[in-house]
């Protein structure tokens, strides 16, 4: 059962002027975990919440989240994209951070109701969507460093178009790390993002948009970048880092791999060393490099920095890029422009 407390007021939105995270839909899902069980979720007006200052989320960072999208087709039908992947991933993050698992009825049914009540917030322009942010935080504690006994699960939504508007410049990180063996790199834990802000600011001050992360022990193997998994189109293969326990196993990544294989492109999920990458760039064998993720969708890179040297990737017109083809194929499936041979669309 979901308790619905409908807002008496609906905010308006101009879909021609969407920037990521600027506007939030009228309602949010709110659900508390108390005494070892989840209470009934409540759909209520988007707004502030009250939590105790001793909540563990503030002190020890028990916080995880997801990122997913819903799309409209030209007739106004609404589709979530692979929502069960996000459902499974939030629970694997929850398990790693010693937080309670969320049930399908709270996550999926709650989300369906939220999107139904706020369906006017879903843009119907091709390439636009509603970005959905489910998150789970610890809301209790005794200041001792132990897992919380109370939690809050919420879902909020923001209309979305492009995350980046230009090709990206990335710097290969040689000092800081995003994750380590045995750590939480595979989770969408808030702390993974907090720890990236300082090195990212340094990279940005040096003229880059994002960091291209490397492995924490040798800084010689490429992992991922910012909020994206990364693909390298070298000779005739598309190479991406293996989804091990150190990188986020992106749902867009999985989808791009499937779509590339469908197109007959050879995909290698293997480690790519920095020296191999630089060698191939110098030999003009790297045709394209791109990052992908739910918020970003797919964005190609134009410059890669390494130890104070910059390497420029080939200038290829958009329509001739493999990344352009893959992005369009993905968006066509998401927006119900073409058949969905993989069963990725989930109609509301
Ligand atoms: N890697 C990181 C660190 C991310 O934050 C994201 C975004 O969610 C991704 C990769 C891509 O994952 P997905 O395609 O599931 O959004
Ligand atoms: C996503 O793509 O869903 C993300 O999590 C990106 C977000 C951190 C802005």
UniProtKB/TrEMBL annotation:
Pfam family, one: Aminotran_4
Taxonomic lineage: Bacteria, Pseudomonadati, Bacteroidota, Flavobacteriia, Flavobacteriales
Signal peptide extent: none
Top-level division of the source organism's lineage: Bacteria
Cofactor names: pyridoxal 5'-phosphate
Pathway the protein contributes to: Amino-acid biosynthesis; L-leucine biosynthesis; L-leucine from 3-methyl-2-oxobutanoate: step 4/4; Amino-acid biosynthesis; L-isoleucine biosynthesis; L-isoleucine from 2-oxobutanoate: step 4/4; Amino-acid biosynthesis; L-valine biosynthesis; L-valine from pyruvate: step 4/4
EC class of the enzyme, as a word: transferase
Source species of the chain: Candidatus Karelsulcia muelleri
Record-listed N6-(pyridoxal phosphate)lysine modification sites: 188
Reaction catalysis annotation: L-valine + 2-oxoglutarate = 3-methyl-2-oxobutanoate + L-glutamate; L-isoleucine + 2-oxoglutarate = (S)-3-methyl-2-oxopentanoate + L-glutamate; L-leucine + 2-oxoglutarate = 4-methyl-2-oxopentanoate + L-glutamate
UniProt xrefs under NCBIfam families: ilvE_II (TIGR01123), PRK13357.1 (NF009897)
CDD domains: BCAT_beta_family
Entry keyword Transcription: no
GO terms (BP aspect): isoleucine biosynthetic process; L-leucine biosynthetic process; L-valine biosynthetic process
Keyword rRNA-binding listed: no
GO molecular function, one term: L-leucine-2-oxoglutarate transaminase activity
PANTHER family from the UniProt entry: BRANCHED-CHAIN-AMINO-ACID AMINOTRANSFERASE (PTHR11825:SF44), SUBGROUP IIII AMINOTRANSFERASE (PTHR11825)
Name of the protein in its database record: Branched-chain-amino-acid aminotransferase
Family: Belongs to the class-IV pyridoxal-phosphate-dependent aminotransferase family.
InterPro entries linked: Aminotrans_IV, Aminotrans_IV_CS, Aminotransferase-like, B_amino_transII, BCAT-like_C, BCAT-like_N, BCAT_family
EC number, as in UniProt: 2.6.1.42
């Amino acid at each position: 059962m979901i308790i619905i407390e409908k807002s008496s007021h609906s905010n308006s939105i101009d879909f021609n002027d969407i920037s990521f995270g600027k506007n939030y839909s009228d309602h949010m899902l709110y659900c508390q975990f108390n005494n070892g069980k989840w209470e009934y979720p409540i759909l209520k007006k988007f707004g502030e919440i009250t939590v105790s200052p001793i909540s563990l989320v503030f002190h020890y960072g028990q916080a995880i989240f997801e990122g997913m999208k819903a799309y409209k087709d030209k007739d106004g039908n609404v589709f979530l994209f692979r929502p069960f992947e996000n459902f499974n991933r939030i629970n694997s993050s929850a398990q790693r951070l010693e937080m309670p698992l969320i049930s399908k009825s709270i996550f999926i049914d709650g989300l369906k109701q939220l999107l139904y009540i706020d369906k006017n917030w879903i843009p119907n322009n091709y390439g636009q969507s509603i970005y959905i942010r489910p998150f789970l935080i610890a809301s209790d504690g005794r200041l001792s460093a132990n897992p919380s006994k109370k939690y809050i699960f919420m879902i909020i939504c923001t209309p979305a178009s492009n995350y980046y508007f230009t090709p990206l410049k990335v710097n290969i990180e040689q000092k800081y790390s995003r994750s380590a063996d045995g750590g939480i790199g595979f989770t969408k834990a808030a702390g993974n993002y907090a720890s990236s802000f300082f090195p990212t600011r340094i990279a940005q001050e040096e003229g880059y948009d994002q960091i291209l992360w490397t492995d924490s022990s040798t800084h010689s193997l490429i992992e991922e970048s910012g909020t994206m998994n990364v693909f390298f189109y070298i000779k005739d293969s598309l190479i991406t880092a293996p989804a091990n326990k150190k990188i986020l196993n992106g749902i867009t990544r999985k989808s791009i791999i499937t779509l590339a294989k469908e197109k007959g492109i050879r995909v290698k999920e293997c480690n790519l060393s920095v020296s191999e990458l630089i060698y191939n760039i110098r030999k003009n064998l790297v045709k394209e490099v791109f990052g992908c993720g739910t918020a970003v969708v797919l964005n190609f890179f134009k410059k890669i920095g390494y130890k104070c040297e910059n390497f420029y990737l080939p200038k290829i017109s958009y329509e001739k890029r493999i990344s352009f083809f893959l992005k369009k194929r993905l968006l066509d499936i998401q927006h119900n422009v073409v058949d969905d041979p993989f069963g990725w669309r989930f109609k509301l």
